Every structure is written in C-alpha cells, then in structure tokens.
Amino acid sequence: MPAPVPQSIYQIKVTLNDSRPPIWRRFLVPDSISLHQLHTILQIVMGWTNSHLHQFIIDDEYYGEPEEEDGYSEDLKNEKRYRLNQFVERKGFKFIYEYDFGDSWEHTIRVEAILPIDPSTRGAKQPQSGRTQYPVCLEGKRACPPEDIGGVEGYDDLLKIFRDPKHPEHNDMLEEFGDDFDPEFFDIEDVNLGLRKYAARARMAKL
Questions:
Q1: Pick from 20, 4, 35: which is nearest to 12 by CA?
Q2: Over the stretch 32-66, which tens digit does the pLDDT of each residue have?
Q3: Using CA atoms, how far apart are residues 6 and 75, in angstroms rounded to an integer?
Q4: What CATH number is given to the structural domain containing 39?
Q5: What is the Cα gyration radius of the chain?
Q6: Closest by alpha carbon to 6, among 85, 123, 81?
Q7: pLDDT tens digits for 112-163?
Q8: Number of domains in the chain
Q9: Cβ(158)–Cβ(170) below 8 Å
Q10: Could you say which DSSP state residue 34 is in?
Q11: Angle at alpha carbon of residue 60, lines to 45 and 151, rounded to 5°
Q12: Residue 15 has pLDDT above 70, yes or no
C-alpha cells in the first residue's frame, strides 16, 4: 500500500514539561506521518536514546507501541495505525508525549502552524533539488537531560551539583558526564543530521 501523500506541513513545538528554564524544539513534519514516526522524530530532536517505553495522550486516549507478546490492550491503541492529520484540525492543537514511565519525561506537543507544501517553506534545503526536506528542526533551546536521572527533579539536582564546585558530588558528576557537559548547548546541526539519516532510512524501506 503506497504511503499517504501529505497535504500540508505542521510546524510543531515540543516542550519538556516543568523544565526551568524550558527545554524545547521547533520542527516541521508532513501532516501524514504516523504517531510512531512522530515518536522517532521526537527522540531525535529532543536527544533521547529510545531506551524506554513511551506513549501519546490525545483527547484522553492513549497511543503507544504495544508489546507483541502481550497483544494489544484495550487501553493502549497502536500508534502505527494512526496518522497525525487524523487528530489535528487547527493550529494550536496540543497533546502529550510521555517518555520513560519511571522518570516520566512529559512533553507538550503544540501545532503552531499548518503550512502549505512549498519549496520556499522555511527549513533545510536539499543541495541538488533545492526542495525543503522534511522532517527538519528549525530551532531549539538547551541540551536534553541525561537518561535515568530521576526526571525533571533529578535533573534539577544534577544541575545544582554541576554549578557548585564545592559540592561533595561535583567531581563524581564531572567524571560521569564529562567536564564538557553544557546544559545550555543545543546542537541543531547534529539533530538535522539525525533527521536526514532517518528520512533516508525511511525512503530505503519503501523501495
């Protein structure tokens, strides 16, 4: 079955809830992507390692990747069967993406704009065709927290230790995360490289 043809482009902002100052990304995706594809894109733009379970919460319904051996539960709908444009009817539409149920990294996804598919749309250009390549990250702020540190509260504690050279755990933190750890740094070039690799794999899978 051929992939659905996108009719528009969504400009999306994802913000890690309760992060202070906020950790966020802004990116463009075709409206026809599945929730499962959106999950992979979110992992790349945020900087997570896709090592934990996740789910979307949309209008009080739960969507995720049910484990095959357990079958599909009534409470968790298979995210591979739903496309983003089945939910988004207007700009400003919001829903939740939760990653790692232990640390509970909860994100708010907001559709900021619904754009026409046009080569002049803001974004990364393919060198040969000049056409905009999707998905593409436009901007963002601050580094993704390390995994398995106890969620937002754990990350706040880590930052306090990082900023206090006199803290008894400061040297241990530097040894674990490196003295080049910079919570303010967001590498958009690396993110877009990851998105281009993802798009290339997706194209190859269709051949």
A1: 35
A2: 999 999 999 999 999 999 999 999 999 999 999 98
A3: 29
A4: 3.10.290.30
A5: 18
A6: 85
A7: 999 998 654 444 444 444 456 899 999 999 999 999 999 999 999 999 998 8
A8: 1
A9: no
A10: B
A11: 45
A12: yes
Q: What is the pLDDT of residue 195?
A: 97
Note whether residue 176 is domain-resident. Answer: no
Residues counted in the chain: 207
Tokens linked to 79: 């995210």
- Does any domain span residue 170? no
Could you tell me the CA-to-CA distances from 89 to 53, 86, 92, 106, 145 in Å, in that order? 28, 8, 9, 23, 32
* pLDDT confidence tier of residue 193, bands split at 50, 70 and 90: very high
CA proximity to 136, closest of 127, 144, 124 = 124
Residue 159: how many other CB atoms lie within 10 Å:
15
For the four alpha carbons of 157, 15, 44 and 58, in that order, the dihedral sign comes to: positive
The DSSP secondary structure of 114-148, one letter per residue, reads EE---TTSSSPBPTTT-PBPSSEEEEEESPPPPSS
Does 111 fall in a domain?
yes
150 belongs to a structural domain? no
Angle CA(91)–CA(124)–CA(86) in degrees, nearest 5?
30
Residues of the domain holding 38: 9-142+186-206
